[in-house]
Sequence to fold (124 residues):
Amino acid sequence: MERTLVGVSMSGLFTLWQWLLCNTFRNIASLSGSFWYEGFVDWVKKQPIPKKTGKGYFLLGDQESKSKVKVFSAVGTDTQEILTWLKAAGIDVEFQSVPGNHYSDPIPRLDKAFTALYSDTHPE
Fold:
């Protein structure tokens, strides 16, 4: 059985946290993951490099880094730093930037995530 974990915002952070700690889920999708959370990027980079056969999908709205809340505005650079670390570890990841802010278009964003994760195994 193949399992995929999907999370949005803080649960998007949780998907990556869980994926790095165990192999319960083969794939993850983190939509607008709260990677700005203090200390999270450093924690990720201190983890042992995991062996992953699945895929990680990450999505951010193009307005999220423009938040008036200073701590939230780091989400774009924090996400890119995490993606760079994952790619260097040989993990299959995909990133998409889409129009909108943190709360925009949830259903189309989920559709993008599942299409990215399963387009190779489940033709449209």
